[in-house]
Design a protein that fits this description.
With 107 residues, this protein is mainly alpha-helical. It has three helices and two strands. Strands 1-2 form a two-stranded antiparallel sheet. The longest helix is centred in the middle third of the chain and has 23 residues. It is globular, with a radius of gyration of 15 Å. The termini are far apart. Pfam families: Inhibitor_I29.
């Protein structure tokens, strides 16, 4: 088995486990494949970051299948649109149910 196909198999397995962990379901096979492609790119970015000399590590969380366009207006860098938590050096994310993720995890 080539390194590429092994990584693809490993990523697919991780996606299945990740979906179960975060209770993710999709409306169609096409939507699931689109979300898998986003998850795969997120995994690549996580691995690339963690391979560097950064002072912190990142991982795959409940947002790993989402693009920037999937977040509600106001979620982004700096300040949470819902709780006003200021975290200028990290991405402040609010869940798709519009409940404040930052306030429930860090305050």
């Amino acid at each position: 088995m080539s390194v590429i196909s092994h990584r693809e198999t490993e990523t697919r397995r991780m996606f299945v486990e990740w979906k179960a962990k975060y209770d993710k379901t999709y409306a169609s096979v096409a939507e699931e494949e689109r979300r898998y492609a986003v998850f795969k790119e997120t995994r690549r970015a996580v691995d690339q970051h963690n391979a560097g000399l950064q002072s912190y590590r990142v991982g795959l969380n409940m947002f790993a299948d989402l693009t920037d366009d999937d977040f509600p207006p106001g979620c982004g860098l700096g300040v949470c649109w819902q709780c006003d938590t200021k975290m200028p050096s990290v991405r402040v994310l609010c869940s798709s149910t519009f409940s404040c993720w930052i306030s429930s995890k860090f305050t």
